[in-house]
Amino acid sequence: MNCAKNAPLSPKLSLNLGLQLRNTFGIAGIAERAYEITAAEQIPPLMQEITQNQWPWRVLGGGSNVILPPVLSGATLLMNIDGEKVTHEDSESTYLEVGAGVNWHAFVQWTLDQQLPGLENLALIPGTVGAAPIQNIGAYGVEVAQYIDRIIAFDTTSNQFVTLTNAACEFAYRDSIFKRQPGRFIVTQVVFKLPKAWQARLHYADLQAMSANLTTAKDIFAAVCDIRTKKLPNPQVIGNAGSFFQNPLVSNQQYQSLLSTHPNLVSYPDKAGHRKLAAGWLIDQCGLKGHRLGEVGVYEKQALVIVNHGHGTAADILALAKLIQDSVQERFGVTLEIEPNIL
Length: 343
Ligand code: EPU
What we know:
alpha+beta
């Protein structure tokens, strides 16, 4: 295990810590007991204390995919384990071990500075390295699971550190074992495997349109940053958690029936017998782009994103989410699943 040198065994504790600046939605939640985890070895004794006191608990990474309640009772583990290093290489790949608390975008930038391409399509995704595998972050035709070799985590059921191979993580679209078994694993390090044979992935429409000017991984990185900056709201300016709903998967039968009534339906091929629909398009068709409900609203340039105009709470966000879900259900008969974790 790669523990930070000289890290104290007891993590720093803050009582009643305001989390407004630690979640990208900008929700003013308060953590009763916030522990700053800077080394993996701090976790076992802390989990023992949490169990003894029967405190509820959760982990907060970059706070970019969560909806916080007004008060987080019990213990909140602020994941700050840092460090990124090349551990070894073979003829085909380079292996990197990275602390769960490292900022995702800074890490992608660092790999490119080390001449290690592969992650460029995932530039500018908010959050941390440790959070990336939980929902298997993806963008512009790439999912992080394609580059994860294994994950080191504390397993709270066996009370020991475990290594999960890529297959054991059960990755799927915006899904993994970490999401399906919430509260079981605390990810401390992610080991990436970057193939030496690099190939540009430009099949996603927005990149394809610019492909003539995209020769190197750094070109693609810059293009993805540019597209995201134009399409998605910057959480430092207006609170949001990126895509608020997953793109829903429907049967081919339902797809064909929808297509007959909505010839402009936006969809993508997926697993056999199914089709993935663009949730943003469905919401947009309901006329909800820019729709405001009190302190929160649908982003005016991307209907898949809910934004916090200032003082929005989890209840406000979930009320708007319900309105959107009901509208899409009524008009298209399609169920939208909320993407961020509701804490
Ligand atoms: N669309 C509309 N109206 C809208 C929004 C979208 O008509 O208001 C249409 C677009 O024109 C496009 C289609 O819907 O034809 C898809 O939109 P877009 O290309 O913006 O991608 P997305 O499906 O909305 C997904 C990911 C994003 C990722 C992008 C790029 C999910 C839930 N979201 O969004 O991920 O950045 O593709 O790969 O899969 C995130 O998870 O937080 C996230 C931002």
